[in-house]
Amino acid sequence: MFNNTHFPRAKKFWYMGKLYKWNHPNIHVMSHALHYGTSVFEGIRAYKTSKGPAVFRLPEHVDRFFHSASILSMEVPYSKEEIIEAIKSVIKENKFESAYIRPLLFYSFGNLGLVPKFSPVELTIGAWKWGAYLGEKTEKGANVYISPWKRIHHSQLKMTAKLGGVYVQSTICGMEARSLGYDEAVFLNLEGNIAEGPGENIFIIKEGVLKTNDKTESVLEGITRASVLEMAKNLGIETRIEPMTKEDFLEADEIFFTGTAVEIAPVIRVADGSNPQVEKKEYTIGSGKVGGITQKLAKTFNDAVRGNIKEYEKWLSHVYD
Questions:
Q1: Catalytic residue (one of 88, 137, 162, 211)
Q2: Of 88, 128, 132, which Cα lies nearest the Cα of 302?
Q3: Is 162 a catalytic residue?
Q4: Taking a C-beta distance cutoff of 8 angstroms, is the pair 183, 56 a contact?
Q5: Is 13 exposed, middle or buried (0-12, 13-18, 19+ CB in 10 A)?
Q6: 214 and 143 inside one domain
Q7: In a domain, 37, yes or no
Q8: Which of 167, 228, 288, 289 has the maximum number of C-beta atoms within 10 A of its C-beta?
Q9: Domain residues for 143?
Q10: For the whole model, what pTM was predicted?
Q11: CATH number of the CATH domain containing 265
Q12: What is the total count of domains within the chain?
């Protein structure tokens, strides 16, 4: 029924304590989450190291997973330790050296009122081989589109949680950007400042200073984002956490996305479509090529996640201890 064409090398997934073959169907079509987006999830990566596969910042991801569940009033049916071991078991069972990992908690089959009074919380974990989210643009630099749709505001919903239903906005605007010929979208917030991408945090560099925003600007403060901030400080790069205006963004010397799926991906061109009443205008960022600080941070990150920098081994959970 289900093949793994778009989930390379995925053979089995974990569901409520058992491992199932990838093509095994076991979710009822009247499950609450399917209709209302009442789910929470994490995106996690495991990388190949000299000691076998290692999961990047696994405890932090699981902590956020539980935080997200609390926002949806979910009683998680497993402990953090049990979920960590389940994630490792999926990597072992599929014999992955590296993988993208997707844990998902969701309100399952029970009732279809908006409030899931009789729908139990269930957990599934899948993993597959997944390269860079933006493909070759991760090396060459992406062309992005500032959407006219404003990011969901932190006064409307807890943006510190990864709620499945919230990502409908990301899907819509990501598809719109690609339909117009761009690689990814960028959101402004209700204040008109730069918020984030559909699934990425944003950094800009101006005159050697690295800057990103925080949750007050309606962003999810990503785990990769936090890692980049720490690496930048250790490399002697001045960092600031403060609002970014659209002008800051368009006049930056360098721009890059961060996130588990996207890792570190540079942006070299921007189309401003934020005002649908005005013809969109295109801008080249810096020289139009991937900048030096972005390259330096990307190299440091790639070495760190693969266990090549002792200072950052604290971030790695080895699957085969």
A1: 162
A2: 132
A3: yes
A4: no
A5: buried
A6: yes
A7: yes
A8: 228
A9: 137-305
A10: 0.96
A11: 3.20.10.10
A12: 2
